[in-house]
From TrEMBL:
<keyword id="KW-0564">Palmitate</keyword>
<keyword id="KW-0472">Membrane</keyword>
<protein>
    <submittedName>
        <fullName>ABC transporter substrate-binding protein</fullName>
    </submittedName>
</protein>
<keyword id="KW-0449">Lipoprotein</keyword>
<keyword id="KW-1003">Cell membrane</keyword>
<feature type="signal peptide">
    <location>
        <begin position="1"/>
        <end position="27"/>
    </location>
</feature>
<dbReference type="InterPro" id="IPR050490">
    <property type="entry name" value="Bact_solute-bd_prot1"/>
</dbReference>
<keyword id="KW-0732">Signal</keyword>
<dbReference type="Pfam" id="PF01547">
    <property type="entry name" value="SBP_bac_1"/>
</dbReference>
<dbReference type="InterPro" id="IPR006059">
    <property type="entry name" value="SBP"/>
</dbReference>
Length: 536
């Protein structure tokens, strides 16, 4: 197709989108009117309508969402029927790309990247939602008014909102999901205290390597430390704080965007990791295994075979016979120069969780239906699981422990799509929960006590959750794959084989040739624009 034809095709697409949106903003198209749409109350429509929604699912929940207690409650009395087209999480990125590329759209798509939301909105594939939110989504409107940072995160640079969020605004979610767990029973056997510095961690791991910690007569089959290279939850990120940085692509310090993997702090972190690897203290499988393999490693066997590992929670993934051997997660270790930090993370949010596509004949009804998920108590059920909650006469919610035939994780996601669907969970609702208290001397990442213990070490360096322009996303795509592939390769190589000092200057020169300064500028421009918008 020549350029003139391309322009003509683009103009036709834009015109079609404008006509479609005009119909949406006019209070309902002929199909919506013929279904008997109601702006308030139930049913939402007089005649039953069907919406097709494509997304992904948690394997603990399964695909039959219409049978989940939370979805039954959302659907009840609405006359809105949902046909779910759900894919496993491992397949969803590929599946959604195929759906978008083919143009064979469902009425709603779930869990898109921010770049897909912005591009799809600009192309007219997804409809603007801000007017529909104002007219038909009072629960979501209240939530966005309470948390303007969520509204900012879902607002595209062109001023439109093309997606609805999944957002957990609990303060404890500022805590990092990656932390270090050390087997306290092994420490006792070695006559050691819980490490407080990187040097003390090294000594503990050396003891785990040389002593017969599991008591099987073989001192050579214990794994001192294991993880998953490059994984945000099970990777080595926890240790970066001991060297005054954070394991992120970009961080922000004094309003300046910094590419972490080109800093001295990154280099010092990698040198420490290599020192552990060279001594045989890091499981070599850490460089290639995935999270499933790690969980199998820390949970198999009748006795613990791993001295330390990185994860969000130990008790939910280790064997029941020794799940409490790992005690509490560790506050940041002090590094050689005394650095002892942890990131103050963005709160848990998926800005592109729910988009209404241009083929949806019932956008008003869809918005009214999905707004039911943002009702505060429903959001709590979607987030915490209805089986875990018992509402008391004073308006608080007791937490029901998991039965013996369920793990804590399975019990939490039972009867809810959990983090694969929208909700707006507030700190106010979190405060209404009567949460289990940590045992004396114990900390758990799901408890507020853990967050409070980390606050003194937190640095607000994490890049904010924002949307870029379509042009900026295209620039990011131009650089990020090659730069990430190269830096991943070099980091893994330096951890396993060393040589970072000798190769550092060449590494920096290569990054500059790959466009690092332009790549960083896109993020700096996005940050500056977002900050200016927040100040308005």
């Amino acid at each position: 197709m020549n350029m003139r034809n391309k322009r003509a095709g683009s103009m036709a697409a834009v015109l079609s989108a404008i006509l479609l949106l005009a119909g949406c903003s006019g209070g309902g198209d002929s199909k919506g009117s013929s279904a008997g749409f109601h702006e308030t109350g139930l049913p939402i429509v007089d005649k039953p309508i069907s919406l097709t929604i494509a997304g992904t699912y948690d394997e603990r929940t399964g695909t039959n969402w219409n049978e989940l207690e939370t979805m039954k409650e959302i659907n009840e009395g609405t006359n809105v029927q949902i046909k779910w087209n759900l894919s496993p999480g491992t397949d969803w990125a590929t599946k959604r790309n195929l759906i978008i590329a083919s143009g064979d759209l469902p009425d709603v798509l779930l869990e898109l990247s921010s770049s897909q939301v912005v591009t799809g909105g600009a192309d007219g594939m997804f409809i603007p939602l801000e007017d529909l939110i104002g007219k038909y989504a009072p629960n979501l409107t209240d939530f966005l008014n309470k948390y303007p940072e969520v509204r900012q995160a879902i607002t595209a640079p062109d001023g439109h909102i093309y997606s609805l969020p999944m957002a957990n605004m609990s303060e404890y979610k500022h805590a990092d999901g990656n932390t270090l767990w050390v087997n306290k029973e092994w420490l006792k056997k070695a006559g050691l205290e819980m490490p407080e510095t990187t040097e003390e961690l090294t000594k503990a791991l050396e003891a785990f390597k040389t002593m017969d910690m599991d008591g099987d007569g073989n001192p050579n089959n214990e794994i001192p430390l294991t993880g998953v290279f490059g994984d945000s939850q099970y990777g080595f990120g926890y240790l970066f704080g001991s060297f005054n940085t954070i394991d992120e692509t970009f961080i922000v310090q004094d309003d300046k965007v910094v590419f972490v993997r080109a800093t001295e702090e990154f280099k010092n972190t990698v040198k420490y990791l290599h020192s552990l690897y060279e001594k045989g203290l890091i499981d070599p499988d850490s460089m290639t295994q995935n999270s499933t393999q790690l969980i199998a490693k820390v949970s198999s066997g009748k006795k613990a075979s791993v001295g330390a590992f990185f994860a969000w929670s130990a008790d939910q993934i280790t064997n029941a016979d020794y799940r409490w051997d790992y005690g509490s997660p560790m506050i940041p270790l002090a590094g050689p120069d005394g650095s002892q930090i942890t990131p103050r993370n963005n709160l848990q949010m998926t800005p592109g969780m729910f988009v209404i596509t241009k083929v949806n004949p019932y956008p008003e009804a869809t918005m009214r239906w999905v707004d039911r998920a943002y009702e505060p108590e429903m959001s709590m059920k979607l987030r915490e699981g209805p089986n875990r909650l018992k509402k008391l006469a004073d308006g608080t919610y007791d937490t029901i422990p998991n039965p013996d035939n369920y793990t804590a994780g399975e019990w939490k996601v039972k009867e809810t799509p959990y983090n694969d669907f929208v909700y707006g969970f507030s700190q106010e609702m979190r405060d209404k929960q009567i949460l289990p208290k940590a045992e004396p001397g114990q900390l758990d990442p799901d408890f507020d006590e853990w967050y409070e213990a980390l606050v003194p070490y937190m640095k607000p360096w994490v890049y904010p959750n924002i949307m870029f322009t379509d042009a900026q996303y295209k620039s990011i795509e131009q650089y990020q794959t090659d730069i990430k592939t190269y830096t991943d390769k070099m980091e893994a190589q330096w951890i396993a084989k060393g040589g970072i000092d000798e190769e550092w200057n060449t590494y920096l020169e290569t990054l500059n040739k790959m466009g690092l300064s332009d790549y960083t500028k896109v993020y700096q421009d996005g940050y500056d624009t977002n900050k200016a918008n927040l100040a308005k």
